[in-house]
Specification:
By secondary structure, the protein is mainly α. It has helices at 7-33, 43-49, 52-73, 83-111, 117-126, 134-158, 170-188, 197-216, 227-236, 259-286, 291-302, 304-310, 322-335, 339-346, 352-361. The chain is globular.
Length: 377
């Protein structure tokens, strides 16, 4: 089989499958959180929570890489850049992410009224972690990636010709985005921390890392480095704690910095190691999946936002993890039958019925039933 497969097929295969694995870890983490009142000391909770949301941000960055490679890196330096393309991309993401955020906040209030509705919504907007925080934070991170992409475009145009930089080299491309995202991250510190920006600053490095990973390491880490994330994560995660400073920090001399600062670096190392190990493990499993399991995981990945939004209302149902996921898919399917409810609850105007009709009229020719390759580590 040829290794030069079209990028969209690769993305739809491995990345959707990866998102399927990822949303299962989210459901698992919230299930373990509700398993005991002392969940912070419950090892399954610690194991999952140490990396699962940074990993979801990382995967979002991997997915975003396809857009930025096409619009920023694969264009000739003298080609006219249509800024409206970036604006349209953000507009679509705003609908996809912000509309469900507000809708499910209203649903949560309706199911469990708490105080004045206006005060409740103001609190949700100011502090998104009281609701489906991942959605507005990912949108803010998307704005950051767009700013970084435009910085790379500007650098390519202003770069002196005698520098002889090869923009076809993926290492050059990755380095350009590393510098641009670091600059954007530092610039964001000049902005107020309201509206969830404090969470966006915390998670933007993982989104940026996912984008850089997909650009520079689309086949995964070099073979000699692949075991390293597993070793680091398994060695450090036993000392991880959600709210307290890790006991490991006590072994660092005071001259190294404030304990909270050292702990923040430790948390990022654990989260990144867990993320890289998870992506690598998902790639290993993906290459060995039977076709029906692959299709199931791809479907979960395509509905990951739906499951994230709905599963909270079914936590505690039996069997754990499986039941909340299946109930969420059932609710998602019902709400997606109508284009209006699909847009209100999930930010997509196309209903399942209209999509099915369109696919029947334009049935694609299947070239190969199982894409493998560049996106799978």
């Amino acid at each position: 089989m040829s290794d030069r497969l079209p990028q969209p097929a690769v993305r739809d295969g491995f990345l959707d499958c990866l998102k399927g694995f990822a949303i299962l870890t989210v459901v698992a983490g919230h299930t373990f959180q509700g398993a005991t009142l002392e969940f912070d000391d419950y090892w399954p909770f610690k194991f999952i929570y140490a990396f699962h949301m940074p990993m979801f941000m990382f995967v979002s960055g991997m997915t975003a890489a396809f857009f930025f490679k096409r619009q920023v890196l694969e264009r000739h330096v003298t080609a006219q850049i249509d800024v409206s393309v970036f604006g349209l991309d953000l507009w679509k993401k705003a609908q996809r992410l912000l509309i469900p955020f507000f809708t499910w906040a209203v649903v949560s209030y309706a199911l469990n009224p708490s105080g004045d509705f206006v005060s409740y919504m103001v609190k949700i907007i100011q502090y998104p972690d009281n609701g489906l925080w991942f959605l507005p934070v990912l949108f803010q991170c998307s704005i950051g990636l767009t700013a970084a992409g435009l910085l790379v475009v500007a650098f390519r145009r202003l770069c002196p010709e005698n520098w002889s930089i090869s923009w076809d080299d993926r290492r050059t491309q990755a380095l350009a985005f590393i510098v641009a995202t670091v600059l954007v991250n530092y610039a964001s510190r000049c902005l107020p921390s309201g509206l969830g920006l404090y969470l966006a600053r915390l998670h933007f490095p993982y989104v940026a890392a996912g984008l850089v990973y997909q650009i520079g390491l689309s086949r995964g880490l070099p073979a000699i480095l692949r075991p390293l994330p597993y070793v680091i994560f398994l060695a450090l995660v036993p000392f991880w704690h959600r709210t307290d400073v890790s006991s490991l920090v006590a072994y660092f001399p005071p001259s190294w910095g404030h304990p909270r600062s050292i702990n923040g670096i430790y948390l990022m190392i654990v989260a990144m190691a867990g993320t890289l190990a998870f992506v690598d493990l998902a790639g290993i499993i993906y290459r060995r999946l039977p076709a029906f399991l692959e299709r199931s995981l791809v479907f979960l990945g395509q509905r990951s936002l739906d499951i994230y939004a709905v599963h909270f209302h079914f936590l505690g149902t039996w069997p754990p993890i499986i039941a909340p996921t299946l109930y969420s898919l059932a609710v998602s399917t019902v709400l997606r039958l109508n284009s209006s409810t699909a847009w209100i609850f999930f930010g997509q105007r196309q209903s399942l019925l209209s999509r099915g009709s369109r696919l029947a009229d334009h049935a694609p020719v299947v070239v190969d039933a199982r894409p493998i390759g560049r996106a799978a580590p």
